[in-house]
Amino acid sequence: MIRASIGIGANLGDAVQTVQTAIQRVGALPETRLIAASSLYTSAPIDSSGDDYVNAVIQIDTGLPAEQLLTALQAIEQQHGRERPYRNAPRTLDLDVLLYGDQQIASVTLQVPHPRMHERAFVLLPLTEIAPETLIPGIGAALPLLPSVSDQRIRRM
């Protein structure tokens, strides 16, 4: 089993309900067990438009290979009507593999650690809430990065 961190966000429809349902669905994936779920947060869109996002981070233990986990997450997004009309478009649901153990993955479809996770309050705050000791491969400890994102608007719900 690999410990993975998954970022969850939504800003279309009933975003709170969508995020809560997504947490349950990810935890119910084959060979997967939900370990921890952060509080829900609201955050302003970054490099995007639309309503504020509802965000959370969960940790799972999974036996799914990274690419298979990504495929399963994208299927959950599709069940929630996810469309990708353009980069950073508002979304019904966004599920990102943030961390997959201590692995660094650079494939055509998946980059782990998520390339901008260390620059995003909506990732770092919920991640360090549930796992303050998190190390981001190639970057370092997550907790000391919080001051660098303190100018981003985020609020615990």
TrEMBL record:
Enzyme Commission (EC) number: 2.7.6.3
PROSITE patterns for the chain: HPPK (PS00794)
CDD domains xrefs: HPPK
7,8-dihydro-6-hydroxymethylpterin-pyrophosphokinase domain mapped to chain residues: 87-98
Listed pathway(s): Cofactor biosynthesis; tetrahydrofolate biosynthesis; 2-amino-4-hydroxy-6-hydroxymethyl-7,8-dihydropteridine diphosphate from 7,8-dihydroneopterin triphosphate: step 4/4
GO biological process, one term: folic acid biosynthetic process
GO molecular function, one term: ATP binding
Keywords: ATP-binding, Folate biosynthesis, Kinase, Nucleotide-binding, Transferase
Keyword Metal-binding carried by entry: no
This protein's record includes keyword Acetylation: no
Function noted in UniProt: Catalyzes the transfer of pyrophosphate from adenosine triphosphate (ATP) to 6-hydroxymethyl-7,8-dihydropterin, an enzymatic step in folate biosynthesis pathway.
Family membership noted in the UniProt record: Belongs to the HPPK family.
Name of the protein in question: 2-amino-4-hydroxy-6-hydroxymethyldihydropteridine pyrophosphokinase
Gene (name only): folK
